Amino acid sequence: MTQVRTTCAYCGVGCGVLATPGEGRSVKITGDPDHPANFGRLCSKGTHLGETVGLEGRLLHPMIGNRCASWDKALDLVARKFAKTIAKHGPDSVAFYVSGQLLTEDYYVANKLMKGFIGSANIDTNSRLCMSSAVAGNIRAFGEDVVPANYEDLELADLVVLVGSNTAWCHPIAYQRIQAARAERGTKLVVIDPRRTETCEEADLHLALKPGTDVALMNGLLAHCRRAGLLDEDFLARSVSTPAGFWEALDDGHDLWTVAKTCDVPPVDLATFYDWFTSTPRTVTLFSQGINQSIRGTDQVNAIINVHLATGRIGRPGAAPFSITGQPNAMGGREVGGLASTLAAHMDFAPANVERVGRYWAAERMCTKPGLKAVDLFRAVRKGEVKALWVMATNPAVSLPNAARVRDALAKCEFLVVSDVIAETDTSRYAHVRLPAAAWGEKDGTVTNSERLVSRQRAFLPLPGEAKPDWWIVSQVARRMGWRDAFAYDRPAQIWREHAGLSTYENKAERLFALPGHTGAGNDVYETMAPFRWGGRPFAGGRFSTRDGKAGLVRVQQMAPVSRREWPLNLNTGRYRDQWHTMTRTGLSPKLARHRQEPLVEVHPADAEPAGLNNGDLAQVVTANGASLFRVAVTESQRRGEI
Ligand code: SF4
Fold first, then answer.
1. How far is the centre of ligand 1, averaged over its atoms, from the C-alpha of 14 (Å)?
2. Which domain holds residue 140?
3. Ligand 1 atom at shortest distance from the alpha carbon of 43
4. Taking a C-beta distance cutoff of 8 angstroms, is the pair 60, 466 a contact?
């Protein structure tokens, strides 16, 4: 059987996989030793990918209600309902909710249909939940959503700071690369996280800060660097705009003692971190959900970037702020404009961009303003303002916050389409039409990982039943809505060329995101495409994607904590190493279930004792938004007063 080079379906590390199909649908999975993200390593989820390619629970035929239907009938119905709703209530009465599980080509077509032809920007993605703060922070600081780091920087750094990231569990191969570099060159590792996670076990220092105080911690670090005379004044003068009053705002309340008190960390540990940082030019600050997934997310991102800009630790080997993505193709989604707040190819809704993209697409009805973001989108569905919704490759009934309200919205939606690989998900049970999508191993296209490395996902299994790739399904609906020529795709390579073409169209180096070598890539070139990283070492010349070429420091202040006296405990959330994406796929692997068999509520002994809780008990956790039952784990890895 032929070995196929492809990419892991799970996290944003984007590891290369060698898949060797065997009898039936069996497949042998190993790490690809030549892939630059993992060099042959795989974590437990990647290793057990072969256990999740069976047909158990698959959606194999289009379904209208609970009846099988032909593709023609189902696609006609979707096109007709969307067209009718738009004709009656306008383009903003429909929406797509998509996913970082889609391939770039799928994402591109869905975004083009919604923003260029339907005429609304009501397309948002589940990646909104995990990294839209990083997108907004990057745009504020750099003028473009560019992650200015490569994995190699983790190996070239002398200090790696992990903020709000349980990297050992959530990005295991990136963590292994850090550990290998530590063994080789003695890199120091600092973890900043309220919880003592598995990532802290090997760390040189763990700062268990009070949740939500990251801005104070980073502003304090910046003030410390300034007091120590370690700002990069040349870089600041040449490459960075500093808003009026920026430094004065750091004068008050950012001494070591005040910051230690605000963050509730020992002053001696804080001083150690600040000293290590100031004395180590090669520092990478890697962050993920603990920073991004917060009402203060964007400010927290900019507080980190500010420190790197002011000390010139960007665009140089081993020195960068590094937001690591959650899903395999969160980054590809960002490149095509899969967020309601961006247009396409790293362009925003400035009139010149709208006009440019419209011209490139020969679009009939370009949207001119941002659309509804995930949480607002489901609110609008619940209020009946969005009447037709298409959910692709995601399970918002479980994964969005305030899930009960999301379920209510789905139940009230006049017309809900779900395209997925799984027949019965918590979301698809509300669907009027279910469309069977191709799964990992069957679909073909590209993904972009956290370090802007584009890799091919390749098919090595036949499409089962009547399943079809997402780009095909969306294109078919678009054609039936009257846009035959604009969606006349017959293969992903064709979409890839168009996407690459848009990235370079009238782009006179204003946008770093550009794929110039790919606009004319033939089908055979696409077929054999090796992984490549766009952007080189971003901002190496000290020039950013703003009009004057300068990055911007952003004034951010620590907000006062929300006081909820009636609630005695603070709830924080994390995730387990071996499960993924509401378990719709990883839940199929018995071996992955061995790691953790059920979700736990972790409680500090000093909080467990007065509540009469022991290890293994059941406890009901009640919040302002709902209640849930968990098995108790009593552990000192939680801060007191937090669960
Ligand atoms: Fe897959 Fe992420 Fe594990 Fe790599 S680290 S094998 S991409 S889940």
1. 6
2. 131-326
3. 3
4. yes
